[in-house]
Design goal:
binds magnesium ion, 6-stranded mixed sheet, 12 helices, GMP Synthetase, Chain A, domain 3, binds guanosine-5'-diphosphate
């Protein structure tokens, strides 16, 4: 298993917002209190910015992000090391009303993360009225008996006047300890959020070495990168019918690493769309994925992509098992 050093992510970050060193109060330095470490589940509806928030907390693009809902399908573990704490985040798929089998696995993953968490981080978008699903999720989180910290995300694109009534509405819900408005995309409020979360972690030594950012193998991250490019490159239907499996990942000293990934689709017609005229669409996906993978592992990569039809895999238990979703 490989681990990665932190790198700056290339998105705008408010000065001083994300650097834990910058915001440590001098009194904290004199009396930092006990070291804290534990697990935080990031939970919320699809597309509210959970994966973006994890990446911003990590200063690293670990979890894949797209403008489309349901980009994240599995639990993604990200480790944030701070001077006085280690926070281990579980990014989760958005919680929704499932309409096919694969979506049932999303909800299961989110619930399992909640059960393992020391602190629950509930994310929602600022809207005039909260959605019924948000209340359901909050109830589920409260049922775990763990403290809940709420982050209201995407404040960069809302009227500030919407925030106060929303905070007022949420603050008396069971187990809710803090409510922090943030912009995960721009970093605003993220340091305040990290500080709030830290408070509720148990006293404990580190669970992982300080330079480790995740426990996922490179093979998994490579498959996720390919899947992200599919989400970004194609229209509505294709990404949801797609799954990616890395079948080979071979390190070849003195040569490029060899990575063979298979993209599964549900129908023959989707295969054609995925490949595109003369293979052009797939070539673009391959190029984008290879560049990101090379940046991640800091080695040159030869990436080969194949497309295979697996009829209705999203709704078949055996295929979901084969693809590692259950
Ligand atoms: P998830 O499904 O909850 O993991 O959401 P993602 O992290 O994949 O983000 C969904 C979309 O929301 C992406 O297009 C993000 O760029 C966007 N997004 C996330 N956080 C913010 C934010 O703070 N402000 C704005 N304007 N967009 C955001
Ligand atoms: Mg996500």
């Amino acid at each position: 298993m490989n681990t990665w050093q932190r790198k700056q992510i290339d998105r705008p970050v408010a000065p001083g917002e994300l650097s834990s060193e910058v915001n440590v109060e001098s009194s904290d330095v004199k009396n930092p209190g006990p070291f804290r470490a534990g697990y935080v589940a990031i939970v919320g509806q699809p597309n509210v910015g959970k994966s973006t928030l994890l990446n911003t907390l990590l200063h690293y693009k670990l979890s894949i992000v797209s403008p489309k809902p349901q980009t994240t399908r599995r639990q993604i573990l990200g480790i944030v090391n701070r001077p006085h704490s280690q926070m281990i985040f579980f990014d989760t798929p958005g919680i929704l009303e499932p309409s096919y089998r694969l979506q049932h696995t999303f909800v299961r993953v989110a619930h399992s993360a909640m059960q393992q968490a020391d602190v629950q981080l509930f994310l929602l978008e600022p809207e005039a009225t909260t959605r019924p699903m948000d209340h359901e999720i909050l109830q589920r989180l409260a049922d775990t008996g763990r403290p809940i910290v709420i982050a209201i995300n995407k404040i960069d694109k809302c009227e500030k006047s919407i925030l106060l009534p929303l905070i007022d509405h949420l603050k008396d819900k069971p187990n809710v300890k803090e409510i922090v408005p943030v912009s995960a995309l721009h970093g605003e409020g993220v340091e305040a959020l990290a500080q709030a979360l830290e408070t509720y972690l148990p006293e404990h030594e580190r669970f992982y070495p300080e330079d480790q950012i995740t426990d996922h193998p490179e093979r998994f991250l490579a498959a996720e990168i390919v899947r992200e490019k599919v989400f970004l490159r194609y229209g509505e239907e294709i990404p949801y019918s797609t799954s990616v499996r890395v079948e080979e990942f071979i390190e070849r000293p003195g040569h490029k690493d060899y990575v063979r990934a298979v993209i599964y689709v549900e129908r023959e017609s989707q295969k054609g769309i995925l490949i595109g005229k003369g293979g052009s669409a797939l070539k673009q996906v391959g190029k984008m994925a290879r560049e990101e993978l090379e940046a991640l592992i800091e080695r040159p990569v030869y990436l080969e992509l194949f497309v295979t039809v697996k009829e209705k895999w999203r709704d078949r238990e055996s295929e979901l098992r084969n693809l590692g979703y259950v």
